[in-house]
## 1
Amino acid sequence: MIAVYPGSFDPITSGHLDIIERSSALYSEVIVLVAVNPSKKPAFNLEQRVDMIERSVHAAGLNNVRVESFSVGLLVDYVEQSRGQVIVKGLRAVSDFEYEFQMALLNRRLKPGIETVFLMTASEYSYLSSSIVKEIARLGGQIEGLVPDTILEQVRERFAGLQATAGAQLVERS
Ligand code: ADP
């Protein structure tokens, strides 16, 4: 059975990788689908996000996982065209539930043959999101363990310039 795990992955976190690993044990093939969200300005472009997931998946030795990107159209149409039967979602907290519940019902109405399956977060990643990682990196905090080791440097570098700018502003103001 083919499962599709969609998200913005800006960037992939250890919580995402945990969901990918667990799905890859449940399904014969997992497609991690990096979606373009026109209302968000990502820190990493589509190509970088795909590449970071590919490196993480490769380092984790998962060979039934592939990474694709998706910019236009309905998720359920993509899933159907890829011969997928399942959409995988991660759930962290009750706050994720309402939106995910609505999307799952909507997607089932659009394509009744496609099921949405929810995997509960690992307790150690329940607080983790891409936005939290970016926030910590931007403020110069330690992100080791929060993102896969293979992308650690790239995330640090992306925000290193911003810290310098923030630092310069502080110096100027004082
Ligand atoms: P984020 O909310 O981190 O910006 P995405 O939109 O990329 O993430 O999330 C893609 C999917 O991964 C969603 O189903 C989301 O609920 C799930 N997810 C994100 N972070 C975690 C985590 N720490 N544990 C479990 N699932 C997660």
Note: The beta strands are 2-7, 29-35, 65-70, 86-91, 115-120.
## 2
Amino acid sequence: MDLDTARTLAELAELHALTGAPATGARRVCWSEDWERARAFLIERLQQLPVTVERDEAGNLWALLPGRSDRVVAVGSHLDSVPGGGWLDGPLGVLGALAVLRAVAAGEPPQRTLALVDWADEEGRFGRSLYGSAAAAGTLDLAAARKLTDAAGLRLPDVLAAHGIALDRVHEARGRLARLDAYLELHIEQGPVLEARGEAVAAVTGTAGTERRRLRFTGRGGHAGTVPMELRRDPLAAAARTTLAVAEVARRHGGVGTVGAIEAHPGIPTAIPGTVELWLDQRHAQARPLATMVAETLEAASAAAGQHGVELAVEPVWSIEPIPFDPALVALAREAAGGGEPLPSGALHDAAEVARAGVPTAMLFVQSLGGISHAPDEDSRPEHLRAGIEALGRLAGEALRR
Ligand code: HGY
Ligand code: MN
Ligand code: MN
């Protein structure tokens, strides 16, 4: 397959210049104007190919290149980013898929239909990662999704409606996955392993289990200058103790635990907060230790609440179990990547939702410099990006033929 990887690297840089900036990072938060610019950037290029471009009921974008059978091999990722994210997380897989589409379109019709897919809101603007692929997989909990809001308090159903999407109908996107014989995703590793190994590209074994909750501590607000320390019921002190416990528990069990956001109300220097909301994200490659991490952390949170005389309310936001990818496809991906040891993914990917819908799925990782991601200085070496796109082409060629 003759892939124009130089063109893809140029397009990745162009997309970042259009929808982000080196110092402040990517602005492609899903459903935002910059994310719409990114979609338009992709659609403009797809329209130069003999493909049909469609948006499904959840807002995922599909481009189909007909093959000799209507069974489909899908290749994709996500154009949306976290606020201030990097230039590669997502677009590498979507524009890498575009490079494969171009190369296959230049030849005879493939044995299977080839689809490029750009999943909507992989980053979980509303707290639930993998929104678009979950809708297509039928695993999006609509009742829970109806209540979700983003950091600015905008409701998920309203933002979808503003883009012509009815939340109650998003599961109608499910039909497409039934036609997939394989789903392939190229992504940056977003961690330090490949750099430590000195490898450019590797296959991925699967994704870690993830538990996400919002903890609400309710104490008694008051004047920062007049309330004696022994009379305080300070929810932020309880949240701080809990945050330290999250890290200890994660270390104890070999997982990861993150408090990525704490919001104090009223959130001013001269008032003891009345309430504090804390976002908790815990992950582990195995389900049982992950469950133990959650239990121990919630125990520590209620002990901290007791110590500070505040109330604790725990709201589960979302969880996904550890997802293994298809062993046969992972073996093909390993070969395409040059034979290095496949590695597990601590980050979530749309591939997890597609795999748990029963579609044979595999991923390829490209080395991340310094293991940095979800930050403006996310980067990879150009020769590694090109090697990753070439490996994706080899893997897609195999999957189309076998
Ligand atoms: O949270 C994740 O792992 C993904 O990057 N959204
Ligand atoms: Mn990603
Ligand atoms: Mn991400």
Note: The chain is about 35% helix and 25% strand.
